[in-house]
Design goal:
This protein is α/β, with parallel strands linked by helices. The chain is 35% helix and 24% strand. The structure holds adenosine-5'-triphosphate (ATP).
Length: 269
């Protein structure tokens, strides 16, 4: 059974902009899939439809065997606790400590009172610390988030998502604000989490070479349509040009290129 399924999904913003045009795909549990495509292709819209941060205009979406497109608030809250999200700009509470931000991953499972009062069990605190250790952030646990580097902040974002005990993590441009070295650290952590915890990862990326290095499957989106869905080996130059609607020679197509040298190069937009 797929963990996520889109069936004929379209999204029209403000009755004007067709961001998604009748897309269908499904993810199996434990997959690591990247979505690539030019700016405005609809990548973020796909991710946000997965947990209904955005409502699809047409079509059906299933998560973990349940149709989410028709769910009421309470059921939807349950879906959101099972889908962690990682953002380009981290979305942390900067004035709070690393530990507090990670514990926020549990808010969806708490009563409003316990959440507002910041009441967490010893077990939850130990779990949060263990996750921080796995992400090499133990030494930063009691620092304020505004004291951290971008790469460290993104690792806190990942830790918060794992604290939710999700079945799937949605990553919206997780490395777009990071330097090549920090980008590699983040992608390595995501891959490890995917492999060791069997958490399905759906990752929006601008960098074609990163998508090719880390994913077993890539979905190429352009103009709100899926124009490629397959393994990195099948993603040839012609297909990349089709996805990016470009004949630009700057497109990164060589899988064997050194990632450090190329990660900050963007596919042509
Ligand atoms: N809240 C919104 N209201 C109106 N139009 C929107 C909204 N969000 C996105 N769009 C439009 O929908 C289309 C798809 O946007 P989306 O953000 O999903 O693309 P993207 O591939 O993630 O782009 P980028 O790589 O630049 O983040 C674009 O034309 C965008 O301008």
């Amino acid at each position: 059974m797929p963990i996520l399924q889109f069936e004929n999904v379209s999204k029209i913003y403000n009755n004007v902009t067709k961001a998604l045009d009748n897309i269908s795909f499904s993810l199996d549990e434990g997959e690591f899939v990247s979505i690539i495509g030019p700016s405005g292709a609809g990548k973020s819209t796909i991710l946000r439809c997965c947990n209904r941060l955005i409502d699809a205009s047409e079509g059906n979406i299933w998560f973990d065997g349940k149709e989410i497109t028709k769910m009421k608030k309470k059921e939807l809250r349950n879906v959101r606790t099972k889908t962690g999200m990682i953002f380009q700009h981290y979305n942390l509470v900067e004035r709070l400590s690393v530990m507090e931000n990670v514990l926020h991953g549990r808010l969806g499972q708490k009563s409003t009172f316990a959440g507002m009062a910041g009441i967490y069990s010893e077990e939850e605190k130990l779990q949060a610390f263990q996750i921080l250790k796995e992400l090499d952030l133990a030494e930063q646990a009691y620092k304020r988030c505004d004291e951290l580097s971008g790469g460290q902040k993104q690792r806190v974002g990942i830790a918060r998502a794992i604290m939710q005990q999700p079945k799937m993590i949605l990553c919206d441009e997780p490395i777009a604000s990071l330097d090549p070295k920090s980008s590699r650290v983040i992608m390595d952590h995501l891959k490890k989490i995917n492999e060791t915890k069997n958490i399905t990862c759906l990752v929006n990326l601008h960098q074609v070479d990163v998508a090719m290095k880390y994913s077993k499957r890539i979905i190429g989106v352009t103009g709100g349509k899926i124009v490629f869905d397959g393994s990195p080996e099948r993603l040839d130059t012609a297909t990349i040009h089709k996805i990016y609607q470009s004949s630009d020679s700057e497109l990164i197509t060589d899988v064997n290129v050194n990632m450090d040298e190329n990660m900050n190069m963007r596919a042509a937009i």
